[in-house]
Amino acid sequence: MRLLLVEDDGMLGAALRAGLQQDGHAVDWARSRAEADAAWLSGAQQQQTYDAVVLDLGLPDGSGIELLKKARMRGVHTPVLIATARDRISERVCGLDAAADDYTIKPLD
Questions:
Q1: Opening angle at CA 30, ends 24 and 34, nearest 5
Q2: What is the pLDDT of residues 61-90, one digit of tens each?
Q3: What is the pTM of this model?
Q4: Collapsed DSSP state (helix, strand, coil) of residue 11
Q5: Whole-angstrom Cα distance, residue 43 to residue 78?
Q6: Cα distances (Å, whole numbers) of residue 27 to 24, 39, 107
Q7: Interatomic CA distance for residues 88 and 67, integer angstroms
Q8: Spatial distance between the Cα atoms of 76 and 70, rounded to a whole number of angstroms
Q9: Residues 6+ positions from 2 with CB-CB distance below 8 Å
């Protein structure tokens, strides 16, 4: 599978990418909302499709939720797993209401 990992934390992103690659996945790593937008939703989307996106919500230049909403408004149906430290029920509901396919809390096992 080709995955887009959207994670701004260097140590966590490197560990997630390494683990996913070890499992045989091709992983592109975006460290900001702008990078993720360019890789997933902008012109690059025409050339590069992803089988799934692992999405952090707290990005240095914007909200992962807003990126997800933008994708869904454009009709992009790529499965999205939110991986975040935000653990309140209301935040989980918000993520799922934004059309995430699943929501998991960091730290990940």
A1: 155
A2: 999 999 999 999 999 999 999 999 999 999
A3: 0.92
A4: helix
A5: 16
A6: 9, 12, 20
A7: 20
A8: 9
A9: 25, 26, 27, 28, 48, 49, 50, 51
